[in-house]
Amino acid sequence: MSNNNIRKSLVASALFGAFALASTSVAANQLSEIHKVGQQNIRASVQSQEKINNIFDQSQELLAEYRQLVEQTENLKVYNNHVAKLVADQNVQLASFDKQIGTIEGTKQGIVPLMYRMVDTLEAFINADMPIDLTNRLARVDRLRAVLGNSAVNTSEMYRLVIEAYQIEKDLGTALVTYTDKLAVDGNEITVNYVYVGRVALLALSLDEKQAWMFNRATGQWQALGEEYVQSTRFAIRVAGKQAAPELLKLPVLAAE
Protein backbone atom coordinates (compact mmCIF):
# COMPACT_ATOMS: atom_id res chain seq x y z
CA MET A 1 0.00 0.00 0.00
CA SER A 2 1.24 3.47 -0.82
CA ASN A 3 1.83 6.16 1.68
CA ASN A 4 -1.11 8.16 0.33
CA ASN A 5 -3.47 5.28 0.77
CA ILE A 6 -2.19 4.63 4.28
CA ARG A 7 -2.61 8.26 5.09
CA LYS A 8 -6.19 8.29 3.71
CA SER A 9 -6.97 5.16 5.67
CA LEU A 10 -5.75 6.70 8.90
CA VAL A 11 -7.76 9.86 8.28
CA ALA A 12 -10.89 7.81 7.59
CA SER A 13 -10.32 5.80 10.79
CA ALA A 14 -9.88 8.98 12.78
CA LEU A 15 -13.02 10.47 11.32
CA PHE A 16 -14.94 7.27 12.06
CA GLY A 17 -13.63 7.24 15.63
CA ALA A 18 -14.56 10.85 16.12
CA PHE A 19 -17.98 10.18 14.69
CA ALA A 20 -18.40 7.13 16.87
CA LEU A 21 -17.31 9.07 19.94
CA ALA A 22 -19.68 11.88 19.08
CA SER A 23 -22.50 9.38 18.57
CA THR A 24 -21.73 7.72 21.93
CA SER A 25 -21.75 11.08 23.72
CA VAL A 26 -25.09 11.99 22.11
CA ALA A 27 -26.54 8.63 23.07
CA ALA A 28 -25.32 9.05 26.66
CA ASN A 29 -26.90 12.47 26.87
CA GLN A 30 -30.15 11.12 25.48
CA LEU A 31 -30.12 8.25 27.97
CA SER A 32 -29.49 10.70 30.79
CA GLU A 33 -32.38 12.83 29.66
CA ILE A 34 -34.59 9.77 29.31
CA HIS A 35 -33.53 8.67 32.81
CA LYS A 36 -34.33 12.11 34.20
CA VAL A 37 -37.71 12.09 32.45
CA GLY A 38 -38.33 8.60 33.78
CA GLN A 39 -37.48 9.66 37.31
CA GLN A 40 -39.75 12.64 36.96
CA ASN A 41 -42.53 10.44 35.64
CA ILE A 42 -42.07 8.04 38.55
CA ARG A 43 -42.17 10.87 41.05
CA ALA A 44 -45.23 12.27 39.31
CA SER A 45 -46.84 8.83 39.38
CA VAL A 46 -46.06 8.46 43.07
CA GLN A 47 -47.49 11.88 43.79
CA SER A 48 -50.54 11.10 41.68
CA GLN A 49 -51.02 7.81 43.53
CA GLU A 50 -50.71 9.58 46.85
CA LYS A 51 -53.30 12.08 45.73
CA ILE A 52 -55.53 9.24 44.59
CA ASN A 53 -55.02 7.46 47.91
CA ASN A 54 -55.82 10.65 49.83
CA ILE A 55 -58.92 11.22 47.72
CA PHE A 56 -59.98 7.61 48.28
CA ASP A 57 -59.43 7.88 52.02
CA GLN A 58 -61.40 11.12 52.10
CA SER A 59 -64.18 9.57 50.07
CA GLN A 60 -64.29 6.61 52.48
CA GLU A 61 -64.49 8.98 55.45
CA LEU A 62 -67.23 10.96 53.73
CA LEU A 63 -69.07 7.73 52.94
CA ALA A 64 -68.81 6.63 56.58
CA GLU A 65 -70.05 10.02 57.75
CA TYR A 66 -72.89 9.84 55.25
CA ARG A 67 -73.89 6.39 56.44
CA GLN A 68 -73.73 7.59 60.06
CA LEU A 69 -75.90 10.59 59.21
CA VAL A 70 -78.37 8.34 57.42
CA GLU A 71 -78.51 6.04 60.45
CA GLN A 72 -78.94 9.00 62.82
CA THR A 73 -81.68 10.37 60.58
CA GLU A 74 -83.51 7.03 60.67
CA ASN A 75 -83.10 6.85 64.43
CA LEU A 76 -84.44 10.39 64.77
CA LYS A 77 -87.42 9.48 62.62
CA VAL A 78 -88.19 6.48 64.84
CA TYR A 79 -87.71 8.56 68.00
CA ASN A 80 -89.85 11.39 66.66
CA ASN A 81 -92.60 8.91 65.82
CA HIS A 82 -92.31 7.50 69.34
CA VAL A 83 -92.51 10.96 70.90
CA ALA A 84 -95.45 11.83 68.68
CA LYS A 85 -97.29 8.73 69.92
CA LEU A 86 -96.50 9.64 73.54
CA VAL A 87 -97.74 13.18 73.03
CA ALA A 88 -100.91 11.89 71.40
CA ASP A 89 -101.46 9.46 74.29
CA GLN A 90 -100.82 12.21 76.83
CA ASN A 91 -103.32 14.43 75.08
CA VAL A 92 -105.89 11.63 75.32
CA GLN A 93 -105.09 11.19 79.03
CA LEU A 94 -105.30 14.94 79.65
CA ALA A 95 -108.69 15.00 77.99
CA SER A 96 -109.72 12.05 80.17
CA PHE A 97 -108.39 13.79 83.29
CA ASP A 98 -110.29 16.94 82.41
CA LYS A 99 -113.43 14.86 82.07
CA GLN A 100 -112.73 13.06 85.36
CA ILE A 101 -112.05 16.34 87.14
CA GLY A 102 -115.42 17.58 85.96
CA THR A 103 -117.00 14.36 87.20
CA ILE A 104 -115.18 14.64 90.54
CA GLU A 105 -116.40 18.17 91.02
CA GLY A 106 -119.92 16.97 90.34
CA THR A 107 -119.41 14.08 92.75
CA LYS A 108 -118.15 16.47 95.43
CA GLN A 109 -121.28 18.55 95.10
CA GLY A 110 -123.32 15.44 95.76
CA ILE A 111 -121.16 13.75 98.41
CA VAL A 112 -120.68 16.71 100.73
CA PRO A 113 -124.40 17.02 101.57
CA LEU A 114 -124.50 13.22 101.86
CA MET A 115 -121.75 13.28 104.50
CA TYR A 116 -123.64 15.88 106.56
CA ARG A 117 -126.74 13.68 106.42
CA MET A 118 -124.67 10.63 107.40
CA VAL A 119 -123.28 12.43 110.47
CA ASP A 120 -126.77 13.56 111.50
CA THR A 121 -128.06 10.01 111.04
CA LEU A 122 -125.16 8.62 113.06
CA GLU A 123 -125.89 10.99 115.95
CA ALA A 124 -129.59 10.10 115.90
CA PHE A 125 -128.72 6.39 115.89
CA ILE A 126 -126.38 6.76 118.89
CA ASN A 127 -129.00 8.65 120.87
CA ALA A 128 -131.60 5.99 120.06
CA ASP A 129 -129.20 3.10 120.78
CA MET A 130 -128.23 1.59 124.08
CA PRO A 131 -126.03 4.10 125.98
CA ILE A 132 -122.88 2.17 125.24
CA ASP A 133 -119.79 4.32 125.85
CA LEU A 134 -122.06 7.24 125.08
CA THR A 135 -119.54 9.98 125.92
CA ASN A 136 -116.91 8.79 123.44
CA ARG A 137 -119.40 8.02 120.69
CA LEU A 138 -120.99 11.47 120.81
CA ALA A 139 -117.54 13.07 121.00
CA ARG A 140 -116.70 11.21 117.77
CA VAL A 141 -119.73 12.80 116.12
CA ASP A 142 -118.57 16.26 117.25
CA ARG A 143 -115.13 15.60 115.77
CA LEU A 144 -116.70 14.61 112.46
CA ARG A 145 -118.65 17.86 112.32
CA ALA A 146 -115.44 19.78 113.01
CA VAL A 147 -113.70 17.92 110.19
CA LEU A 148 -116.50 18.69 107.73
CA GLY A 149 -116.00 22.39 108.46
CA ASN A 150 -112.19 22.25 108.14
CA SER A 151 -110.92 23.55 104.78
CA ALA A 152 -107.52 21.88 105.36
CA VAL A 153 -109.11 18.42 105.10
CA ASN A 154 -109.89 17.20 101.58
CA THR A 155 -113.20 15.60 100.67
CA SER A 156 -111.83 12.06 100.35
CA GLU A 157 -110.37 12.21 103.88
CA MET A 158 -113.67 13.55 105.24
CA TYR A 159 -115.53 10.68 103.65
CA ARG A 160 -113.01 8.15 104.99
CA LEU A 161 -113.49 9.41 108.55
CA VAL A 162 -117.28 9.25 108.25
CA ILE A 163 -117.12 5.66 106.96
CA GLU A 164 -114.66 4.79 109.75
CA ALA A 165 -117.14 6.08 112.37
CA TYR A 166 -119.87 3.92 110.82
CA GLN A 167 -117.52 0.92 110.93
CA ILE A 168 -116.88 1.50 114.64
CA GLU A 169 -120.63 1.56 115.30
CA LYS A 170 -121.01 -1.64 113.29
CA ASP A 171 -118.27 -3.37 115.31
CA LEU A 172 -120.10 -2.57 118.54
CA GLY A 173 -122.66 -5.17 117.56
CA THR A 174 -120.15 -8.00 118.13
CA ALA A 175 -117.79 -6.44 120.71
CA LEU A 176 -117.25 -7.40 124.34
CA VAL A 177 -115.85 -4.29 126.00
CA THR A 178 -115.56 -2.85 129.50
CA TYR A 179 -114.94 0.74 130.55
CA THR A 180 -115.40 2.97 133.59
CA ASP A 181 -117.79 5.91 133.70
CA LYS A 182 -120.50 7.60 135.75
CA LEU A 183 -123.98 6.18 136.33
CA ALA A 184 -126.99 8.05 137.72
CA VAL A 185 -128.56 5.98 140.50
CA ASP A 186 -131.43 7.35 142.58
CA GLY A 187 -130.54 10.91 141.65
CA ASN A 188 -126.86 10.45 142.44
CA GLU A 189 -123.92 9.83 140.13
CA ILE A 190 -121.61 7.00 141.06
CA THR A 191 -118.59 5.55 139.30
CA VAL A 192 -119.16 2.07 137.92
CA ASN A 193 -117.55 -0.45 135.59
CA TYR A 194 -119.59 -1.00 132.46
CA VAL A 195 -119.56 -4.09 130.26
CA TYR A 196 -121.52 -4.63 127.07
CA VAL A 197 -121.91 -7.75 125.02
CA GLY A 198 -122.55 -6.68 121.48
CA ARG A 199 -125.93 -5.00 121.57
CA VAL A 200 -127.41 -7.87 123.53
CA ALA A 201 -126.75 -6.59 127.03
CA LEU A 202 -125.34 -3.52 128.73
CA LEU A 203 -124.48 -4.00 132.40
CA ALA A 204 -122.91 -1.92 135.16
CA LEU A 205 -121.18 -3.01 138.35
CA SER A 206 -120.36 -0.84 141.36
CA LEU A 207 -116.69 -0.49 142.19
CA ASP A 208 -117.20 -2.48 145.41
CA GLU A 209 -118.76 -5.21 143.21
CA LYS A 210 -121.82 -5.48 145.43
CA GLN A 211 -124.44 -4.01 143.12
CA ALA A 212 -125.22 -4.58 139.43
CA TRP A 213 -127.59 -2.91 136.99
CA MET A 214 -128.90 -3.63 133.50
CA PHE A 215 -130.05 -1.14 130.89
CA ASN A 216 -133.63 -1.88 129.89
CA ARG A 217 -134.09 -0.90 126.23
CA ALA A 218 -137.84 -1.12 126.53
CA THR A 219 -138.05 1.51 129.26
CA GLY A 220 -134.78 3.33 128.52
CA GLN A 221 -133.91 3.06 132.20
CA TRP A 222 -131.38 1.28 134.37
CA GLN A 223 -132.76 -1.37 136.64
CA ALA A 224 -131.05 -3.13 139.53
CA LEU A 225 -130.20 -6.81 139.20
CA GLY A 226 -130.56 -9.51 141.78
CA GLU A 227 -127.67 -11.14 143.57
CA GLU A 228 -127.67 -14.04 141.09
CA TYR A 229 -126.38 -11.71 138.33
CA VAL A 230 -123.73 -9.81 140.30
CA GLN A 231 -121.22 -12.68 140.03
CA SER A 232 -121.82 -13.19 136.29
CA THR A 233 -121.52 -9.42 135.66
CA ARG A 234 -118.22 -9.38 137.56
CA PHE A 235 -116.94 -12.31 135.49
CA ALA A 236 -118.08 -10.69 132.23
CA ILE A 237 -116.05 -7.59 133.12
CA ARG A 238 -112.97 -9.75 133.77
CA VAL A 239 -113.37 -11.50 130.41
CA ALA A 240 -113.81 -8.18 128.58
CA GLY A 241 -110.69 -6.85 130.34
CA LYS A 242 -108.67 -9.91 129.20
CA GLN A 243 -108.31 -11.03 132.82
CA ALA A 244 -110.16 -14.30 132.37
CA ALA A 245 -110.67 -16.83 129.58
CA PRO A 246 -113.96 -16.53 127.69
CA GLU A 247 -116.69 -18.98 128.56
CA LEU A 248 -120.48 -19.12 128.74
CA LEU A 249 -121.91 -16.20 130.66
CA LYS A 250 -125.16 -16.05 132.56
CA LEU A 251 -126.50 -12.60 131.73
CA PRO A 252 -129.92 -11.03 131.98
CA VAL A 253 -131.47 -10.57 128.51
CA LEU A 254 -134.96 -9.27 127.88
CA ALA A 255 -137.05 -11.60 125.74
CA ALA A 256 -137.99 -10.32 122.32
CA GLU A 257 -141.58 -9.29 121.92
Automatic annotation (TrEMBL):
Decide whether keyword Signal is in the record: yes
The lineage's top-level taxon is Bacteria
| InterPro entries given in the database record | UCP028069
Keywords assigned: Signal
User: Signal sequence: where?
Assistant: 1-27
Task: Report what the protein is called.
Answer: DUF3450 domain-containing protein
Organism, by scientific name, is Rheinheimera soli
